[in-house]
Amino acid sequence: KPAMTKCYIEGSQETGRDLTLKCVSQEGSPLLSYNWRKITGTEELPATSLLNKDTGELSLKNVSEEYSGTYSCVAANRIGTDDCFVVLNVTPRKEDVPPPKSRTSTARSYIGSNRSSLGSMSPSNMEGYAKTPYNQVPSEDFERSPGQNPNFPPSK
């Protein structure tokens, strides 16, 4: 009977992309047929899916987040069956949502540049500076320079 059946996903798991679920039995006599099914949610394969029972490939076109779930592949020959499963997790395309990494680094350098300009400003400049709503500047920066605090306008 089939043995060591492996399931894997080829392609990008992002909405709007095409991907292929692949199923391969590494052992077992020939005359294998493969059958994919979804075992979570609606338990039905997506309408656009295309199953090739001979190669064990399940092609999914223009995937959407509803396609996410656990898929199971059963390899069968005359003697018996073997199965495996794979979890598909379709995510929105990265272009729409910038990865968080770049966001934090820009925030960091932004605060850093304010920090350096704070130190070099003279007290008279500081007054106008404090009036502008710079929410991004951490308050601890002001506390570090007690000498300049008297120059801040009242916080009303």
TrEMBL record:
The keyword Membrane applies. It is a single-pass type I membrane protein. Residues 92-156 are annotated as: Disordered. One of its GO terms (molecular function) is cell adhesion molecule binding. It is found in: Cell junction, Adherens junction; Cell junction, Tight junction; Cell membrane. Keywords: Cell adhesion, Cell junction, Cell membrane, Disulfide bond, Glycoprotein, Immunoglobulin domain, Membrane, Receptor, Repeat, Signal, Tight junction, Transmembrane, Transmembrane helix. One of its GO terms (cellular component) is adherens junction. Residues 2-91 form the Ig-like domain. InterPro entries: EJ_Adhesion_Regulator, Ig-like_dom, Ig-like_dom_sf, Ig-like_fold, Ig_sub, Ig_sub2. Its main location: other. It holds the Pfam family Ig_3. This is Ig-like domain-containing protein. It comes from Mauremys mutica (yellowpond turtle).
